Amino acid sequence: MLCSMSFLCTISDERVIERPVLLVPPADTHKYARGSAMVFSGPALHTGASRLTAQAALAVGAGLVTLVGERDALHEHAAHVTAIMLREEDAHLAIVDERVRAAAIGPGAGVSSHTRDTVMHLLKKGVPLLLDADALTSFENCPAKLFEHLHDQIVLTPHEGEFARLFPAIDLADRRTAARLAAEVSGAVVLLKGPETVVAAPDGRLAVNRHASPWLATAGSGDVLTGLVCGTLAQGHTAFEAACIACWLHGDIGVQGGPGLTADHMVGLIPLVLAECLSEGKG
Ligand SMILES: NC(=O)C1=CN([C@@H]2O[C@H](COP(=O)(O)OP(=O)(O)OC[C@H]3O[C@@H](n4cnc5c(N)ncnc54)[C@H](O)[C@@H]3O)[C@@H](O)[C@H]2O)[C@@H](O)CC1
Ligand SMILES: Nc1ncnc2c1ncn2[C@@H]1O[C@H](COP(=O)(O)OP(=O)(O)O)[C@@H](O)[C@H]1O
């Protein structure tokens, strides 16, 4: 079952990411055709970050999104979400079946061997995967073990602190060169967050997003970005395209949201941002 593309990704000759064009889903689509995504939860009392990720993935257009975690964590999620499905984590991740088009892990996951093991299991499943936050920091002392298993349909979304933990030998003074080198060394698409977000692919492609706002510097903002990338990946886009589309949409949320923006409010702005990307019904 193939997913239909949901966006046209636009990058200028100067490698600047421009507003993506949103395509209307075909009339005969269904939720699985729009793409199924799985977001891995943190433990009880650390569930907020993954919930933001799941909510953003659903709002950006994945047809269904499942939060996966321990039973206690799922009880917390159940008190907050309705449209998002909840599944208990199993040791060998049998729940990640062939219908799952993308997964994300890291926000609130905890820096631990459990997080490392889950990442390794997910990599073996071969599902397009996004690693953020604690999923990156958990490999601080063994980045080579992670890089060995990465490929160009994996997205890493570090902020500068996480970047420095995973790539201690790469100088962040020139962020574009840093992202390009990190993509080359890791074998994955690297989305380096900041006022100017840089997206680099292991084959040398590079794009920057300047459409953003300092109001985005608020707790949980990166978790929403993770959901936007994961939800876009689930809709069948390649990792590089999904990362580029998502960081423009995320930046636009900051521009539209302005003062008082919180990560909870960011999720509610996604339909508004998407509506402005709509291609007047040409699906
Ligand atoms: N609502 C929630 O439940 C939230 C949970 N969060 C989770 O909290 C955990 C810790 O995340 P943090 O990002 O705070 O912590 P980190 O564990 O990444 O550490 C933050 C440290 O990194 C350094 N750093 C360097 N450059 C930085 C940059 N550009 N941005 C931020 N820090 C930088 C700073 O020294 C800072 O003390 C993660 O699991 C994260 O997903 C956060 O995403 C915030 C919201
Ligand atoms: N000054 C800024 N201007 C524009 N965007 C910013 C700025 N500061 C942070 N951001 C964006 O906000 C998000 C913050 O993500 P992150 O650091 O992971 O925070 P959190 O872990 O709290 O979610 C990133 O997408 C980053 O690009």
Explain what this protein looks like in three dimensions.
By secondary structure, the protein is of the alpha/beta class. It has a single domain, classed as Ribokinase (UDP-N-acetylmuramoyl-L-alanine:D-glutamate ligase), CATH 3.40.1190.20. It has helices at residues 31-34, 48-59, 71-78, 113-125, 133-137, 143-147, 160-166, 175-186, 221-234, 239-257, 263-275; strands at 7-11, 17-22, 36-40, 64-69, 85-88, 100-105, 129-132, 154-157, 189-192, 197-200, 206-209. The strands form 2 sheets. The chain has a 9-stranded mixed beta sheet with strand order 5-4-3-6-7-8-9-10-11, with helices on both faces. The radius of gyration is 17 Å and the shape is globular. Bound molecules: ligand NAX and adenosine-5'-diphosphate. The site of ligand NAX has 15 residues, from helix 2, helix 5, helix 7 and helix 9.
Secondary structure: elements and pairs:
Blueprint: E1 7-11, E2 17-22, H1 31-34, E3 36-40, H2 48-59, E4 64-69, H3 71-78, E5 85-88, E6 100-105, H4 113-125, E7 129-132, H5 133-137, H6 143-147, E8 154-157, H7 160-166, H8 175-186, E9 189-192, E10 197-200, E11 206-209, H9 221-234, H10 239-257, H11 263-275
Parallel strand pairs: 3-4, 3-6, 4-5, 6-7, 7-8, 8-9
Antiparallel strand pairs: 1-2, 9-10, 10-11
The chain binds ligand NAX and adenosine-5'-diphosphate (ADP).
